[in-house]
Amino acid sequence: MALNPFTSFRKYQRFWMATVLLLTMVTFVLCTGTGGDLTDRLIKQFAPREGSPLAIVGGRKIYNRELSDLKDQRNMVNEFMKRACELALKNIHDIENNEKLTPEQRQKELPKLALPKQDLELRWRRAKYFGSGVKLDELVDFKVWLLEADRLGIKLLPEHVEILLNIEMLSDFTLFQARSREQMYSIIRDLRQTGQRITTEAVVISALTDEFRVRLAQQALEYVDPLLFRRGARDPKLQTGANPEVRVALTPAMLWTSFEANRSEFDVTLVPVAVDHFVDQVPAPTEAELKSLFADHYKEKYDPTSPTPGFEIPTSTRVELVIGDPTAPNFKQWSQAAILLEATPPAWIPSGTLPTLVRYLAGPLAQHKVLEFQYNQVRSRYRSAPWSDPDVIEAMAMWLASPHADAAASWIAGYAQPSNLGAHVGYLALGQYHHPKELATGLALETKTRTPVYATWILANGPGTPFQSWGMFVDMHREEQFIPLEVVRADVIKYLERRQAGTWVNANMNALRDKLNEFAGNKYKYQRELKNSLDKMGVERRETKDFYDRFSIDKAPELQPLLKSFNKYLDEINMNEGRNLNPETMLKEGDFYKLFFDGAESFSAFQSTYKARPWPPVVTAKRSFGEKDTRKAPPQVDLFADADKPMLFWKIEDKVGKIPESIDLVRDRVARAWKLLTARDTKALPKAQSIAELLQKSEEGFAPVLAIQAFSTPLIKLEGLAKMYTKDPFQRVFGGSIGAFTPGRRSYSSFTLPKDTFAYPRDDMAQEILSLPDLKKPLETGDSKLDAINKTLFDEGVKSRRVVQILTNKPRSIFYVACVTRLPIPSMPEFHSVLKFAYESPVFQSRGTYRDFFFDEAYEEAGKEHRRALMEQLRRDTDSSILAEPNERKSFDANETS
């Protein structure tokens, strides 16, 4: 009988069915997940290792593929958490807009959502949700933390991960938990469409398990507040994606050590040696020298910040500008007339004594009524003392003194005294001195208004008990009080005129924008429309006489009002468009050229001539978190429409940049570049070296030499420098009182170079200056000649304990001979002050409070040091280290989001 395979199958049917089912399940499991199908897994398992190992973790070699997979996993889970934040925020939006909520429920429940909403928005803005990123060091540290989680016995089941996820999404407000599984699937579906390597819920749970295990291990060892990860989003340091703050206990001695290291102030003086000053001492170059320099650099782009010349002819342009200024004479006259006409009856020919009398009596009365009506709309600017404070003269005198420069000078001078009481009294006295009539009128009116109120209160309490119900009296009269109109009449009229002028300016500029847009690109129609419109509108027209390139456009005198407005609106534009979340797209001072030479910016006039662009611009706001329709365009915000001083600008003529065909096109530039290079190497640098050697060899110290020597340029004196820098000077405590402190807050930051003091400063110049008191090695600039001089100066300075170094800027057009003229010495009185005001404290002899933030900065620095030392210890204990060469590390980190 022939063999029939189905005979065995029929005989052992249950066995074969179970075997087939088991094989199917194993195949399905092996063919899903982020690791690819079964073939991919077998190839990975038996294929030879790819290249050399990049790291060792737990004694095991880690290769590129494993770290790349971890990078993909962390990028995926980071995106997942951001999508989860968006969903939670949409749930908040739904609750806020739920029409079924009664007014009582709305009043009770909606305030509870404000803080969670803020927390979620800040978490969403973090660059890395879980704190660290996907660079090589961060990935190795992540794997080390996983080993530490194993050692601590931190194990999480899927249901634990789901609970932690709900906690992250603020489940106490039922924003995510009620539909957690459904919403998780919706996020996974969205991520699949973005190309993320993710297929199942199990993969997400596995990745989240790793992240939460690492977080728990960090909380156990880094002394992080367990609730910090939930409430920490309110910490401004977390808004930029920084790691959660690590808090360690600091003793007073440790605080003093931190204060000594970071708040020991010192002074640095720099002697600028400008190459320009030596150009005339250089002989004219020969034709051969010019042609040689031209041949070497004629294709290089022109860049004044480069130490080498570039002779490419840059693109340049001429610009026209229209300014709508409410303070211009035309608008001022028109607004004055409008205010007067609004309050004065129409003119007519008097026919007798009575009509004439009515005409001249009714005008002032009508104007007073109009001013009273307008004052009621703007009187919040003129708040006075409440009923509980009978001393109203102070509020009126303060307001009347504010426009006068001598009052401001008196106030500043008074603060130089041990007590600021003199400043306060002097300021008030000058208000009375300049406006005695207004002050007397105001006091008379206040007395007339307040006397009946106070008399009623006293009579109601009976004789002998006037203070028993003062609290009740205050509660009954909490309404705001305002300075009488007669006292601030002139200022109210001025404010109304300014507001009226502003209304007209906005209307005229918006109309002009619309009209010019009709003739965009048409030079002749543009000019005709401007000629017809500008005289009627009263706006100012400016035109640059010369051509300017991207490096000089901010120097054009005709464009200075536009430059000022550009710097004014930077923060508002960055906030509206969300640029502040990405340093690469943020607008900064120095980006003014983008208005004319950057086609990527929507507000730029780069595209063509005679196409007006508004400033401030129309910006595209960030999409609202509650916006469900992703097809709907983001909202537009027209900052120009209601700007204080709107402007329109456009290009009127371009000169296209090009590579010069011959030296004759750029001969003057080549000759000057040759002289600058020669003067730099043969004149300026040797001069800087001689000044440095003179300072270093002086037996009297640096200060006497600097005071006696005559230099071609003024000295640059940087005072009060410290690693933890503050612009708020320390005010000593006089006799144990705190009267010398101005109410407010003393904050700290990194030292930045003073604006407009250094031409084209190097990026690390501020840090170089801060390192001078405790220099460990000579400064390195990349210029071999200068670096050799600095090394010699450093070696000699170490012996004599007088270190002098020479700094330079990016184009090496100025050398700065730098020396420390006041050594860093910590101030014990200041240390007592920062301890005393670590928390908000009242300032005596004046109203207000004072706070010093040194404590917070010291704790943050200690936390960073603790985390660094802990990470080093963990790497050592787990036999973990980075093996990658610098080039391999750079290649792996080249695209950290890949």
Question: How would you sum up this structure, described in words?
Answer:
By secondary structure, the protein is of the alpha+beta class. It folds into four domains: 51-245 and 884-893, no CATH class; 259-286 and 666-861, no CATH class; 316-327 and 505-655, no CATH class; 384-481, no CATH class. Helices cover 51% and strands 9% of the residues. The protein has 30 helices and 16 strands. It has a four-stranded antiparallel beta sheet with strand order 10-3-13-12, with helices on both faces. It has a four-stranded antiparallel beta sheet with strand order 5-4-9-6. Strand 12 and strand 13 (814-825) form a beta hairpin. Helix 14 crosses helix 20 (485-518), helix 18 crosses helix 20 and helix 24 packs parallel to helix 27. The longest helix is centred in the middle third of the chain and has 34 residues, at 485-518. It starts with a helix and ends in a 5-residue tail after the last helix. Residues 171-178, 225-243, 343-363, 411-424 and 732-740 have low confidence and may be disordered.
- Classify the helix fraction into a percent range: 40-55%
Low-confidence parts, pLDDT < 50 over ≥5 residues?
Answer: 171-178, 225-243, 343-363, 411-424, 732-740
The count of DSSP E runs of length 2 or more, i.e. the number of strands, is 16
Strand order of the largest sheet: 10-3-13-12
User: Can you tell me the overall shape?
Assistant: globular
Radius of gyration using CA atoms only: 36 Å
* Intertermini distance: 64 Å
As a percent range, the share of strand residues is: 5-15%
Number of helices: 30
Residue-averaged pLDDT:
77
Number of domains: 4
Major sheet: 4 strands, antiparallel
Pairing-aware structural class of the strands and helices? alpha+beta
